[in-house]
Amino acid sequence: MEAVKHRKLTLDEEMDLAERAVELRKAGKKEEAARLIRQIPMPPRVAMAFKETSGKDFLIRNGYNLVEANERYGENWLNQ
Known about the structure:
By secondary structure, the protein is mainly α. It is built from 5 helices and no strands.
């Protein structure tokens, strides 16, 4: 299983995704909202905590944006 390739986002892009996710959630579209939220880069320390508690497969399977964790810990951090 491979991680989805994400890119670093601008603050405006992150805010746009968050705002769209809120609107989708209000409309009862929870899965679509969650998909958008997972596109916002996860802070490295949070990504590491999820890896340690839920495993790398959880992060990969759910398609979280790990670009900032990759920058901080290196591209291979999930496999270490």
